[in-house]
Amino acid sequence: QVQLVESGGGLVQAGGSLRLSCAASGRTFSSYAMGWFRQAPGKEREFVAAISKNGGSTYYADSVKGRFTISRENAKNTVYLQMNSLKPEDTAVYSCAAGPLVYGLRDKTSYDYWGQGTHVTVSS
Q1: Among candidates 93, 99, 103, which has minimal Cα distance to 24?
Q2: What are phi and psi of 16, to 5 degrees?
Q3: Strand pairing of 118-123 and 113-114?
Q4: Out of 18, 19, 60, 121, which residue is the most buried by the measure of CB atoms under 10 Å away?
């Protein structure tokens, strides 16, 4: 079992930055690829970014490429999402997820464990 707790969400003006954190329980954090997904009101959950187990590979949705950066610290059981140049359309609940696979990291079905999410609101 892996428990995930997100933090760092909030209200920010367009053009601003936020850094989300996701702390994982357990001693097997490095056995999991990690992903960030988001869900805006009335919309489906969508992929944002993912990182491989050792942090060597990262993946981004086209909508956030060049603005968001995913990273992880396995010694701290934590994955981060640095979000810069935020836009109103980035407003959503952001959730982190953990999965044992090395492929299909853009697909939410590849993940076994999910956090409760943290709200991000970007005002114009």
Answers
A1: 99
A2: -85, -175
A3: unpaired
A4: 18
Q: Which residues contact 56 (CB under 8 A, 6 or more apart)?
A: none
In SS3 terms, the chain reads as CCCEEEECCEEEECCCCEEEEEEECCCCHHHCEEEEEEECCCCCCEEEEEECCCCCCEEECCCCCCCEEEEEEHHHCEEEEEECCCCHHHCEEEEEEEECCCCCCCCHHHCCEECCCEEEEEEC
Per-residue pLDDT reduced to its tens digit, 62-82: 999 999 999 999 999 999 999
